[in-house]
Structure formats: structure tokens, C-alpha cells
Write a structure and sequence with these properties.
The chain contains one helix and 27 strands. The strands form seven sheets. The chain has a nine-stranded antiparallel beta sheet, with no helix packed on it. The protein has a six-stranded antiparallel beta sheet with strand order 16-25-24-21-18-19, with no helix packed on it. A four-stranded antiparallel beta sheet has the order 1-2-3-4, with no helix packed on it. The protein is globular, with a radius of gyration of 18 Å.
């Protein structure tokens, strides 16, 4: 018998009013608070993590349509981990138990290696560092190709942001994106990029109430601060909330209103996922990172209290 919780080993880091708990399975952000206030939807240590809540997504975020792609002139077929829609979802490390590289009171580094396998015959080592400070919780993901052939790569996080009481329908959203990737209604397969002014239900460039809007879409053409950082902010009625910021290394962000048939999970948090590439990038090639042998790639994002 094991005493390790179902979500893996637990690591708590803290600084400047922030406290984060990371579970080793999926290098998952299990909880994050600021001065005791939740900033993400948490889950219990001994629970099987609900879907991809808080997981680190690699070597691709979002979907590979039909689990099929071609790379370097070779056709590949991935396992369909989203069987209801027939796609390969959120990479290969979400259910892996990551190992510890280093830990301190305010930071933690975990590591996992993607073994060469059917569908992804490339060996990539991935490290992620979680660090808390006065500006919030920063996660950095660094991938290194330890194989002797190029490898396709993409990454992103999967936090469900929590702004406060009332749930998604009662929160306001500020999303500085002028384009949205439209998808099919049944399978959420990418169709085309469209200006949000032509599909106003997805235009959150001016902060407004989410209400009953269904969102499970990727956004791009982000307005950024002079530093290159884009910010997505969610606020409750009392003016408190949470923001996630990211730089040009993540030109896309997926937003999902967490619509589920279960009352306990339906629209309880807003998934906001900065991504280095859009859905199905293994097929489209859009913003896909190609890691040459020995090459590394880094991306980062930050969650902060508002």
C-alpha cells in the first residue's frame, strides 16, 4: 500500500502573501491563494485530478485533430486521448509523475522526459519551475531535444482561474485579442481565424460580463504592453479577481468556460491557457516550434491577484 496521494507528491511554496501547491502528477498547479483567497479552482490532493485542471501541457497544448499528423515527411498517429471527439488532447505528460530537480520555500523545479514512442518518436526532456514572489506565481517550461532528430514542440498551462463568488457567469473578462480561431460545434476542430469584431460574442477587448457565453476557443493577435506582455483578467462583482500574463513566446491563449454536465464542475472556473502554438499546430505548422537536436525552448506565464 502507498501513502502517496492520488495526485502525486505535494509541494507547497510561498512568498509575499502567495501560496501555491503543486502535485507531481502532471506537474499540476493544485492550488494557489493570495492572502488566503483562491486564485485558481483547487482540487484535493487524494483526488484523481479533474480532467486537466492545472496540468502542464507538452509536447503540444490543445488538440491534434484525429491524432494524425505528418512531420519531416513521415506520417504519425497518436493515441486518441479525447475519444468523444476523436482527437489527441493536451500532450503526453499530463498524467506522468514528474521527478524533483530542486525545491526551496519559494520555488520548485520538476522534470520529466518524453520517451520516443508510437506517434511521437522523439525524446525530449522537460523541466518546469514554479516560483512565487511579490508579482505572483510564475511558471517556466523549458524543453530540450535530447534526440538526434528534430522534434515538434508546443506547450502551455491549464489553470482554471477563480475570481470570486458567483462563478463564471457573474464575472467580467478582459481579453485583449482581436482574432479568434473558430471551431466546429461538434468536435471543436479548427476552421479559420476570424476578427472578433465579426463574431462579437468573442470580443472581450473591452472588459464585459461573461454571462452565459460559451467559450472554448483560441485567441490571437493580442494587444500587448510595451514590454511585450499580454494580460487576461477576470474580475468578480466586488472588483477582486485574478490575471494571467505572458509574453510573445505565447502568441495564443485558449479560453474555456468549463461547461460540463456535472453541477459541481460546470462553469466553476475560467480556463485561461497561454500557448506557444494554436490547436492542431502539428498539422497546420502555425507557430509550431521545431526543436533541433540539442536545442532548448523556454516559455513562461504568471498568475497574479487583482
Amino acid at each position: 500500500m502507498t501513502t502517496t496521494p492520488r495526485s502525486g507528491r505535494q509541494f507547497t511554496i510561498f512568498s509575499d502573501g502567495y501560496e501555491a501547491t503543486i502535485a507531481s502528477v502532471g506537474a499540476s498547479l493544485r492550488a494557489l491563494t493570495f492572502q488566503g483567497r483562491d486564485l485558481v479552482v483547487p482540487f484535493e490532493a487524494d483526488a484523481v485530478r479533474p480532467a486537466y485542471r492545472g496540468a502542464t501541457l507538452a509536447p503540444w497544448p490543445n488538440r491534434v485533430v484525429d491524432g494524425i499528423y505528418s512531420f519531416g515527411g513521415v506520417d504519425h498517429r497518436l493515441a486518441l486521448t479525447e475519444p468523444a471527439r476523436g482527437h489527441a488532447l493536451h500532450g503526453l505528460l499530463a498524467w506522468v509523475d514528474w521527478s524533483v530537480v530542486s525545491t526551496a520555500s519559494d520555488r520548485l523545479t520538476l522534470e520529466a522526459t518524453i520517451p520516443a514512442q508510437d506517434g511521437y518518436p522523439f525524446r525530449v526532456t522537460v523541466q518546469t519551475e514554479y516560483a512565487v514572489g511579490i508579482d505572483g506565481l510564475t511558471q517556466t517550461v523549458t524543453a530540450t531535444n535530447v534526440d538526434d532528430v528534430p522534434a515538434p514542440w508546443g506547450t502551455g498551462p491549464h489553470p482554471y482561474l477563480w475570481a470570486g463568488d458567483g462563478g463564471v457567469d457573474a464575472w467580467t473578462l478582459s481579453l485583449p485579442a482581436s482574432e479568434v480561431l473558430l471551431v466546429t460545434e461538434d468536435r471543436l476542430s479548427p476552421v479559420r481565424v476570424e476578427a472578433v469584431e465579426l463574431v462579437p460574442e468573442f470580443d472581450f477587448r473591452e472588459e464585459r460580463l461573461i454571462g452565459e457565453t460559451f467559450i472554448d476557443h483560441a485567441f490571437t493577435s493580442l494587444e500587448r504592453h510595451p514590454s511585450g506582455v499580454a494580460a487576461v483578467t477576470v474580475l468578480a462583482a466586488d472588483g477582486h479577481g485574478v490575471a494571467i500574463t505572458f509574453d510573445e513566446r505565447c502568441p495564443w491563449v485558449q479560453v474555456h468556460t468549463a461547461d460540463t454536465p456535472l453541477p459541481e464542475t460546470n462553469r466553476v472556473g475560467l480556463a485561461v491557457e497561454p500557448m506557444t502554438c494554436p490547436p492542431d499546430a502539428f498539422n497546420s505548422g502555425v507557430d509550431l516550434v521545431v526543436l533541433e537536436p540539442g536545442e532548448s525552448h523556454e516559455a513562461a506565464w504568471r498568475i497574479s491577484a487583482v
